[in-house]
Structure formats: C-alpha cells, structure tokens
Amino acid sequence: MRIICLWVLLLIALCGSTPVIAGEAIAVVVATNHSLEKISLNELKRIYLRKSLVNKKGVRWVPVNLNIKDPLRRNFSLILFSSLPESQNDYWSNQYFHGINPPKVMVSEEAVLRFVASTSGAIGYVRHSSVDSSVKILLLLHFPRKVD
User: Fold this and answer.
1) How far is the C-alpha of 88 from the C-alpha of 96, rounded, in Å?
2) Which DSSP symbol is given to 51?
3) What 3-state DSSP class applies to 143?
4) What's the whole-number mean pLDDT along residues 20-36?
5) Helix (H) or strand (E) holding 17
6) How confident is the model at residue 5 (pLDDT cuts 50, 70, 90)?
7) CA 134, 139, 140, 142: dihedral to nearest 10 degrees?
C-alpha cells in the first residue's frame, strides 16, 4: 500500500509541476577530451550524490545542475533519484555538515556546456538537441512518456 501511495505522489508531482520533455532525451555530457566514453546510471547517481568524488584517472568529479525550478533539472532528478530536487534538501544539509557540497548550479544549458567543455572533471546534462561539438555524450536518459 505504501508503494502505491508513493507512485501516486510521484504521478501528481509529474502532472502538476514538471513538464515532460516531449520525446527528447537528456544527454549526460563531459568535455570532448575526457577519457570516459560511457557511464552507467548507477555511477552517475553516485557522482551526483557526491559519493564518487574522483574518476578512474584520479581527477575530481565536478557535477553541475541546472536551477532547481528548471524543468530539465526536475526531470533529470526524477529519472536519477525518483524524486524532485526539493525532496533532497535533508540529504544535502547532512552532507554539507560533513564537508561535502552539492553539485554546482548553472543558469542555463549553454552555461552547462561552456563549463563542462572548459573544466577538468566536469559532468553535466542538457537536452539532446542542445549538445554541440565542445562536449561528448556519455549517456542518454529518456523520460517515461505519458500514456494517453
């Protein structure tokens, strides 16, 4: 019964406040010179929770988010964590107490692309259609389509 209630709350959140990116994938990106070619959803989650702080080459991960109200950030959060960004406040308060800061926040997809392309270890996400030659795609995330 509890699981059903959680799903109902998730559906309400999706329908009420989070526009779905109609059929477009979210691209997880790094700089073109990054040695990584792909990433698992589990590893991506560990990076964004700041549980994985360095990559296999010893370079510090620098995950970046969009603003908490941005529909793309909200969809990314739902896919990766099955929750909206606001519900992660307690987690980040606890992490901050232990000296771990949340991912950096960028004001736009263009800012994400510029930052990721020029910052060693940076990883971010943008709409698939926003990807340019300054970054490479490690993973495509597909938002579940609404059933009519």
Assistant:
1) 12
2) S
3) coil
4) 85
5) helix 2-17
6) very low
7) -150
For the chain, the average pLDDT equals 85
The whole model's pTM is what? Answer: 0.81
Q: Structural domains in the chain?
A: 2-141 (3.40.190.10)
* Cα atoms in the Cβ-side hemisphere of radius 13 Å centred on 136: 11
Round to whole Å and give the CA distance between 13 and 10.
Answer: 5
Q: Which residue has the tokens 């259609």?
A: 129
Tokens of 9: 């709350």
**Token code pair at residue 52:** 């994985």
Residues in the chain: 148
Angle at 103 (CA atoms; ends 10, 22), nearest 5 degrees: 40
